[in-house]
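Justification of resources, computational component.

The compute hours requested in this renewal are based largely on the per-chain cost of generating structure records like the one below. Each record pairs the submitted sequence with a full structure-token output. That output is archived, and it is also reused by downstream analysis tasks.
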Amino acid sequence: MKRILISGMLLLGMVSLFANGAGDNTPKKQKLVFWGKQAQDRATDELMGVILKKWGEENNVDVEYTAITSEVQKQKYAAAFETKTVPDIITFDSDFCKYYATQKVLRPVDDLFRELNRQNGGFFSGVLPVLTEDGKLYGIPFQNDIYFFYVRKDLVEGVGEKLPETWDDVARISRKIKAKYHIDPFGHPLSEINDTEYTTRTILWSYGAHIYDRNGNVDFNTPQTLQVFRLLRTMYEDDQTIPKGAVTWNDSSNNEAYQMKKAAFIINPGSVFRWAKENDKELYNNTAVCRIPAGPGGLRANLTSCWAVCIPVDSPNAALAKQCLEYLYRIENYNRIIESAGTRYLPVFRNLLNTPFWTGESKLSELGSMLEDAKVIGYPGPSTAAASNALVSRVLSKALADMVVQHMDPENAVKNADTAFRTLQKK
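The structure output for this chain reads:
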């Protein structure tokens, strides 16, 4: 009886061990948290999730992918770093990457970049200074942005004009279009969002105005800057050719204005082009994709930025994060994402512009040279942390709001912004 009792106890013990996982050689499933940036279309966000899930299944990793909108990114990032509840991988606008690199909360990714740079002709290098701090790279470009000047050529021709070459042309033609077609032609945002910060800089640069000089010192309060502020105030208040609602727009509003045929001119990346081509052939056929108009001195300017993937210092799975990104950047995965997003995502690898997806579109034949030549935040000086911090802090768009919402005169709005830029540079 005693022997039977002992045998039964042993059997029960073995059952208990197996029930609690003892003897199971399957490795414990790891978890990887990835914060991406929300694309303009749900299909691209879903594709990102599918590709990351596949990698997770192949590597026994539970991947939690979340697409973050531009409207909440600043607050969400700040809270995560403050409370040390960061994800393992995070996708930033390039200037957020620069800013957080200066805060010492991101890991250098030079080794991963060197490995990825060996494929597909290497990365376009224009945006790399924005991702670099103290000689180290803190972000891998995921998609490139440059800005196109979209023109409703049918409306321009309808008022007896040719495609605008200068900002004076834009202002004059806008008045004519408003009078004939009763729309507010220049869909330029004036709210505190990314689009205002980026697109207004292209206008400033075209006028020979800039926030920083060649040595990286603040040089904002100049006659050229005042010309731009006066131009925008005139178009908003006097001519009323910039929509009144532009002071409350989000990063999609100028897209929507153009898509709804309520605007004749906007500055935007490739998302509008893609939408028109897929959804409104008439709008697509009537759209000209042009260089940014020139200022009084004939200078044309464009701006390049990117989304970059970064690994926070407090990521508990940094090595696993690099493995995940190596998989994501494989040509068969990465190019699917780029082509899914259409012209909203421009590829970071040079050779990908040679694929039929890009070579088959004659309107975009200058993309390669535009990507090579476009300027980065901080122009004409170096890409500094202060320049990125100024963009993240929305100093420029706040100055525009002071002028058109608070009715501050342009001189004081510019003067106050100059002071704010100088204060940030001292930090």
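The first strand starts at residue 30 and ends at 37. The chain has 19 helices and ten strands.
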